[in-house]
Amino acid sequence: MTAAPVSPQNLSCPVPVPETERVLLGHGAGGRLSAELLDELVLPALGTPSGALEDAAELPGLPELVISTDGFVVSPLFFPGGDIGSLAVHGTVNDLAMRGAIPVALSVALVIEEGLPLSELRAVVDSLGKAAQEADVPVITGDTKVVGRGAADKVFITTTGIGHRIPGLAPSAARARPGDAVLLSGPIGLHGTAVLSTREGLGFEADIASDTRPLHHLVRGLAGLGTDLHVLRDPTRGGLAASLNEIARDSAVQVEIDEAAVPVPAPVAAACDLLGLDPLHVANEGCLVAFVAPDASDAALDAMRGLPGGADAVRIGEVVTGHAGRVVMRTLVGARRVVDMPVGEQLPRIC
């Protein structure tokens, strides 16, 4: 009896085999696939040592100055509460702020698709300029390129920022310590659900607006904590879950949070429930996570609550001695579950 020839059509596997030789959307999601892409391909090629990856880096020989660069490929360009122009400014300003720095100057590069109406481009650039003025940071250089129809999606923006570190502050994702209080400056999930609802026409636009805003004013308000301010991180791609997992990994600690303490607005909870999303995985653009020494937590909360964007600041958990690199959530029913690093891309093209 002759065996049937083997072909792709009569092969099946109950467990999907992941694609390993092509770039996936998930590689840009800020989760596990992003980390693998950096660790296995990008960093070795650049000769950059692996380890804690921060939102911004110190300039060699000038530790008082930090630099950050970020690309924005948002779809749609305009969404409730913001647009790609203002988001490009806020995102880079906030990355500098997470290293304890106040922005000094920005560089902006535009990649524009042929055929984009000039009215749309004007609206994006006007919004970018207004956001930079409101953040009190000048745009001092940049570049503009135009590509053929279909070679880009309307407009992509890359911003680079230079910041000057506030004296006495040196927050780092590797500085969390057992006993630290974990603070959150405001509600989560607004940005990602606002962008997704607009893109897909889901009807949540009236209830949900992006939280995009600059955060360096909040960080300036925390400057009095000095060395008691251990970690700052804005939970953008991958949401709060990704940020907490990165901090737990880089600091080799266990982080525990209370589900009841995490502020999820009702419209965001409803949207996530409808779409099967975890609010902890949804991107934010206007809140920060702070790890502070336990004796400084009340002062930190008071400082944030007295500033715009920090009125709803809360304590959501603490750092404990336990399984290094793990994030655990105490649920509403009293159970405990591990909060994993997101793997793939739940919400593509949101920042």
Can you put this structure into words, describing what you see?
- With 351 residues, the protein is of the alpha+beta class.
- The protein has eight helices and 14 strands.
- The strands form three sheets. It has a seven-stranded mixed β-sheet with strand order 9-11-8-12-10-13-14. Strands 1-2-7-5-6 form a five-stranded mixed β-sheet. Strands 3-4 form a two-stranded antiparallel sheet.
- β3 and β4 form a beta hairpin.
- The protein is globular.
- The model is unreliable at 1-17 (pLDDT under 50).
Topology of this protein?
Blueprint: H1 32-46, E1 57-59, E2 62-72, E3 78-79, E4 82-83, H2 84-97, E5 101-113, H3 118-134, E6 139-147, E7 155-165, E8 181-184, H4 190-200, H5 216-221, E9 229-233, H6 239-251, E10 254-258, H7 266-275, E11 289-292, H8 297-305, E12 314-320, E13 327-330, E14 336-338
Parallel strand pairs: 5-6, 10-13
Antiparallel strand pairs: 1-2, 2-7, 3-4, 5-7, 8-11, 8-12, 9-11, 10-12, 13-14
Q: What is the structure about, briefly put?
A:
The chain is of the alpha+beta class and 351 residues long.
List keywords for this structure.
7-stranded mixed beta sheet, 14 strands, 351 residues, alpha+beta, 5-stranded mixed beta sheet
Helix/strand order, N-terminal first: HEEEEHEHEEEHHEHEHEHEEE
Number of helical runs?
Answer: 8
**Which oligomeric form is depicted?**
single chain
Q: Give the integer mean of the pLDDT values.
A: 90
Radius of gyration using CA atoms only: 21 Å
List the uncertain runs: 1-17
The biggest beta sheet is recorded as:
7 strands, mixed
- Beta-strand share of residues: 15-25%
Strand order of the largest sheet: 9-11-8-12-10-13-14
Shape: globular
Helix fraction? 25-40%
Q: What is the CA–CA distance across the termini?
A: 59 Å
Count the strands? 14
Structural class: alpha+beta
